Amino acid sequence: MGIVRSRLHKRKITGGKTKIHRKRMKAELGRLPANTKLGPRRVSPVRARGGNFKLRGLRLDTGNFAWGTEASAQRARILDVVYNATSNELVRTKTLVKNCIVVVDAAPFRLWYAKHYGIDLGASKSKKATQKSTEKKSKKSAHAAVEKYDVKKASSKLKRKWEYRRKHHKIEKALADQLREGRLLARITSRPGQTGRADGALLEGAELQFYLKKLDKKKR
User: Fold this and answer.
1) Going from the N-terminus, what domains does the chain have, and what CATH number goes with each?
2) Binding site for Mg(2+): what residues are annotated?
3) Whose CB has fewer CB within 10 Å in the chain, the N or C terminal residue?
4) pLDDT tens digits, residue range 133-169?
């Protein structure tokens, strides 16, 4: 069977040998790490103890990311792995693990923000930037295009709703800048090698400032 993680072959606390009275179990097998890479989705099921199944994420490129202050979550594409406290090697190889910092496509969040508050954060882009983004989108035809929302065509009832929401709302400048750029920093909170999912949360407040400083140091 190979390497196992069972107690059968280990000594007792007293130092005596344990008598092996049963066969090895498949669930006790010492398995290889998943080392989930950034790429088209590939997940394999692995039978675990009790007939349960784990989902071993081998390659993932999308996930559900929560925007904490807005109590909203959107499915977004993972663009890049930019920071990992454990090792720079995991950044170089674009390995997705829990608590690694990734760059996420901001389009779904920008669309939700426009629908919820009536503010189009992508409107201030220059012509050159929009041309570049359209060229990139045409190249990446495999991914479905995000729908566009025209704020000006909204009904008067919806506009009144937006006005009320804006009164009690304030967005962080660093986060607004990221939304305009189309790239958001997020932290993966799920375990891709165990669940086959790369879900996480957007970085905000002090946490965002901390990682922006870290990334700025790396550039220098």
Assistant:
1) 63-219 (3.10.290.70)
2) 65, 198
3) C
4) 555 554 454 444 556 778 888 899 999 999 999 998 8
